[in-house]
Amino acid sequence: MIIVVRGHASSSTGRSKIANHLSDYTKFPLFHHDHVAKALQPSFPSTSIQFQPLNDLSLLSFKILHQIASSQLSLNHGVIIDSALSDPTHLDQLNQLAKSQGVDLILIQCRPPDEIDDYDVGAGGRKLTVDTTEPFRVEEFVLQHLPGLAVASQPKAEKPHVPKGKPVKTLSIKPHKRVTESIHRHLHALVLSNKTKNEDRNCKRCRQSIPGLCYHCLDCDEYIFHKSCAEDPGNLELLPDYLKAKDPKGYGFPEKQRQKCSICEEESKGFSRDCHDCLFETNMKLKDGFLPIVINHESHAHPLNLIIMPISINYEYGCYGCGEFGKSISYRCYDCNINLHVGCVSLPRTASSEHDKHTLRLVYDAVDHNYLEKCYCQVCKKEVNPEQWFYSCSICDTVTHIVCASATATV
């Protein structure tokens, strides 16, 4: 999640004070635009100030701030940015960053009621307003507007101090329903290991105990899977079109198979198309035609995690395989910050084409296969980008675009 606090920096209810309160409460790291700019100030010689555009320092400091935020998000951490956003393009850049990382963008406007609201956060984000003429109560604000963060930020209860040698009568306390860290909404970066945060947890998919290797989320103790359950390939031929599309327009999950996540259950809600956990859990509960949770693809050294986002979030990315645009669903490597279409990770390793009598083989790395010079597709005659995947015939020494190979495939 990216939280941007914008407004006047001065006064007891200025944006910097509010940003500090939010950081203390949510435990998200906070980065001040003004502090970065101040640190860069010595790099701008005083003799050239009169010739230097006033916004150059702001642009450079924001660029650094953007890089820091990107690094935090790649580690699956939330971030709070304190900035006046003097340039409207800064918000656009943060919006694009949020989309590329598949996280929410929250813009908090700190202003008095009579001040003009002149920023549009776009379809992919949310805009909240804090009245700077009133005291800011962080807990009330988060509970009202960001309830997921409120539950995640509650401190653990401390054990009472018991003097040695003195028996203490304990009160009978009615047990409460256990609240896990998963209440804080986040994408679940699954890693393979022998250890989890909670050794007593069962597999999220099959509900059986996990004696050995498992995939588990780095940030919560709820999403944990047997290695076999996470890597279950299912039958990709049975996938519905909306799970294979590069730009799905909606999800047509059968009503009886829709699942609500624990967060929505805590909030007394049903299945929501606007909740990525509900979509994720519904997919993994499908008996046929589901997307694998994790794919170990021969093109990449690390596991690829399934991301299935609400259409309303407008999650966008460039596919590492074919180079084309993609939305809403991808397979992501959190280590390398790359995404792949569902269609690309499921491409056949070999193909047949009416333009070649030999078997074509899928090439992931042109350098490894000595395709260093310009190559042209034998079907469309256009240049093939060596940084993207393509099919090749080693006998004829020809290459073919993925799309062209698919269009001219023979049975």
TrEMBL record:
The keyword NADP does not apply. It comes from the Eukaryota. The keyword Isomerase does not apply. Keywords: Repeat. It holds the Pfam family C1_2. InterPro entries: C1-like_sf, DC1, P-loop_NTPase, Vacuole_Formation_Reg. Residues 184-230, 299-345, 354-405 form the DC1 domain. This is DC1 domain-containing protein. It comes from Hibiscus sabdariffa (roselle).
